[in-house]
Amino acid sequence: MTARQIMTELEKLGSPGIKKILLQHGVREPFFGVKVGDMKPIQKKIKMDYQLAKDLYDTGNADAQYLAGLIADDAKMTKADLRTWVKGALSQNISEYTVPWVTAGSHHGYELGKEWIDSPKEHISAAGWSTLANLAALLPDDKLDILGLKTLLTRVVGEIHSAPNRARYHMNTFVICVGSYVVPLSADAIAAAKKIGVVTVDMGGTACKVPDAAGYIQKAKDKGSLGKKKKTVKC
Asked: Where are the domains of the chain?
């Protein structure tokens, strides 16, 4: 399938009702309003395609960008590709999920995650923290910079309440992921969460809530799932 053929298919799958919901969740025009489930048959047909993913992303259409993330060959993505993607990730679902998922699966996740968290642009900073959170969930502990992650936990404690809105949300997620998936830092993450306390994020009038990090990590510990890594973060 070509990018043009896929765009025609996505337009047919679009729904005004879904579009209305996605607008409330920070998705920006242009997009058609396609359910992720309705993208799955297209993803299954394509599987992975590096160039096609880039072509779809370049359309600027948020539905196409989401699908691009699902079919991207993460290992082939260059730093230049990923920097281009994060700059163009103006929709919340793309900046906070699609781009971090692909970046975490690339060879440049940790480097770019740390680079992006220093950005003055909210959507890029949020993408950075989300990327680092996904790395904690994906990579074996012996492949992670444990000392570096511990330092980042300290940074979150000191900066989260003054950080931009969506960055706050993903800084909190970072604490949860480090505590739940990185066994050597679980106690440090719980201690950090307790120091942080309640994290307030403007959720744009939706019913979404900010998870309690300490409670979330404790539940993982109680269930015996502490340190059980994810096979993929894409969904």
From this structure: 1-72, 93-227
